[in-house]
């Protein structure tokens, strides 16, 4: 009984227009940022290094190199602040988590 209520609520908040992406893909995530009375769109582009969770509680981690420094950001998949997710390039990897990219710099980190 209780599980059915949770599934009903999860179906209400899930987005249907999300692209299919996997670990190793290069994605651009466009998010809404609220500043006083304006809404601004900001994009974050990088490689998906991890996906975790299931259903409405799922999230993914995107990593990029910005000015020589590694930056990672975790996004909930069904967040209302995510405007859209674009898959720029598909990657082929044999791991579920690409945490080894944290140790790599330059070209060896971008070749997945």
Mean pLDDT: 88
- Structural class by helix and strand composition: mainly beta
Helix segment tally: 2
CATH fold type: SH3 type barrels
Largest sheet: 5 strands, antiparallel
General shape: globular
Secondary-structure element pattern, one letter each: HEEEEEH
| Strand fraction | 35-45%
Q: Which CATH class?
A: Mainly Beta
Could you say how many structural domains there are in total?
1
* Helix proportion range: 10-25%
Return Rg in Å. Answer: 16 Å
Spatial arrangement of strands, main beta sheet = 4-3-2-1-5
Please state the second-level CATH architecture: Roll
Low-pLDDT windows of residues: none
Distance linking N and C termini: 45 Å
Strand segment count: 5
Properties at a glance:
112 residues; 44% strand; mainly beta; 5-stranded antiparallel β-sheet; SH3 type barrels; single chain; globular
Structure in words:
- With 112 residues, the protein is mainly beta.
- The chain has one domain: SH3 type barrels.
- It is built from two helices and five strands.
- The protein has a five-stranded antiparallel sheet with strand order 4-3-2-1-5, with no helix packed on it.
- A hairpin with a 2-residue loop joins strand 3 and strand 4 (69-76).
- The relative contact order is 0.24.
Brief digest:
With 112 residues, this protein is mainly beta. The protein is built from 2 helices and 5 strands; from the N terminus they run αβββββα. The chain has a 5-stranded antiparallel β-sheet with strand order 4-3-2-1-5, with no helix packed on it.
